[in-house]
Amino acid sequence: MNSKPLFKQGLKDGIPIGLGYLSVSIGIGIAAVSGGLHIITALLMSMTNLTSAGQAAGITIIAAGGTLFEIALVQLVINLRYALMAISLSQRLDASFTTGKRLFLGAFITDEIYAVATSRDNVNTRYMYGLAIIPYIGWAAGTLIGASAGTILPVAVTTALGMALYGMFVAIIVPAMKKSRDVSLTVILAVLLSTMFRVVPFFSFISYGFAVILSSVIAASVSAMLSVRRRSA
Amino acid sequence: MKTAWYLIVMAVVTYLIRALPFTLCRNKVKSSFLQYFFAYIPYAVLAAMTLPHMLYDGKNPICAAFALLAAIVLALCKRSLITVATGACVAAFLAGLIF
Question: Are A45 and B12 in contact (CB under 8 A)?
Fold first, then answer.
């Protein structure tokens, strides 16, 4: 297949993600500045991390003067899902993905880029380059805008903008639930477990990051086991 | 100076988590359990990150509940990512004016 349409298709698929990231990263920029980070620090963090949840946690730890070990551990735990997504996406890569290109393009695996890329049967490097560019620019630009505007906007607006992140998650989850009963079961289980970790006092020693990992791994495992059993029955 | 170290540690850890499995995993996964697991895990992670944390994240859980409701309705109507995200923000902002 000609590679040019693949790059263009990737760019096109990346536009809604980029626009979404622009709004979400404005929230990240606002949070960074209110946590005492310099505008340039906020921008560099976005350009080198590209992770909403990880950066939100990182900003909190830096503001509190946490240790480097603590920040490393929290990034590891919160972003561990990217390792799962990377393995999952690696199943769909075609031969254009050499080691060097995997090392480079691997840096751009985010929840949304993964969700879009994994919906294709085969992923080509051209497509992946196209898909990653606009979200990356949107993420950096939004952070810069948010960090610059953070001190100007009223609290009511900045709080509302913080909901953009969750809105995007819902936009990815709900259509998949409509399509598949197994995904619905997985989502319901994950929410129940994550709620349990949050509200039951016995589990209060489990941090946010670990609660997310435990909830999702247990929910996906149970669903996968049920799917295997049903298929073999 | 310490801020620079924070940034470097965050960037390196986050990069390695993504790039190492992406680079090293070359064989197709044969186990049907793992195939299902990998198909379900992203939705499980996003769901666990959204609820109940969304309700605690903002200043006002009622606003967050309205944002959630708006997002679910828009997503059920098959609206795009950006429309759903914007709808959630607008709903939270409007609810914030009332509650």
Answer: no
* Contact criterion met (CB < 8 Å) for B85 and A167: yes
Pick from B30, B37, B93, B90: nearest CA to B60: B93
pLDDT tens column, A19-52: 888 877 887 888 788 778 999 999 999 999 999 8
Position A190 scores a pLDDT of 96
Which long-range contacts (C-beta less than 8 Å, at least 24 apart) are formed by B14-17?
Answer: B14/A48, B14/A49, B14/A50, B14/A51, B14/A54, B14/A75, B14/A79, B14/A82, B15/A48, B15/A106, B15/A107, B17/A75, B17/A76, B17/A79, B17/A80, B17/A82, B17/A83, B17/A86
> Which residue is associated with the tokens 């990992």?
A213
Determine the Cα–Cα distance for residues A12 and A15; give it in Å rounded to an integer. Answer: 5
Backbone angles phi, psi at A93, to 5 degrees: -75, 140
Cis status of the peptide bond prior to B52, with omega within 30 of 0: yes
Residues of B with Cβ-Cβ distance to A34 under 8 angstroms: none
Q: At what angle do helices A181-199 and A164-179 cross, to 10 degrees?
A: 140
A110-160 pLDDT, tens digit per residue, is 988 998 998 888 899 999 999 999 999 999 999 999 899 877 778 777 778
**What residue spans define the domains of chain A?**
4-177, 180-233
* B89 to A176: CB separation less than 8 angstroms, yes or no: no
Q: Which of residues 155-214 of A touch B (CB under 8 A)?
A: 155-157, 159-178, 182-183, 186-187, 189-191, 193-195, 198-199, 208, 211-212
Which parts of chain A fold into alpha helices (H)?
4-34, 39-49, 52-63, 68-78, 80-90, 99-105, 111-117, 125-149, 155-161, 164-179, 181-199, 208-232
